[in-house]
Amino acid sequence: MDWNALIAPLARYTLLAAVVTVGTAYLVFRSGLPLLVLAGTGVILVVLGAGEAGAAPASGFGQAEEMDMAGLTEGMEMLPGSSSDYSLRAKLLFYGLGLVVWNVVGLAVLLR
Hints:
elongated; membrane
């Protein structure tokens, strides 16, 4: 597993995008309700990013690679690095994780 390939989407979606989203909600509303809604949205995005509609058969994946059918195998990988753009699943997973973590931090600040 290439851990370096995880650093860019982690920084972009979990840190930057999630902090901007949660920070904006915190500064605009200054209450816990928007943060709870964002935390619920983050949980849903984590489930959508980590879940699969169904398991892809290994034989079909290998056969598609051998036949140079890149369109069929493009969205199957979870980790970025084989394509220039990050997969939608990785974006949803990292952004959802960021929303959950930063909302917990925001709620802890509000409850302090």
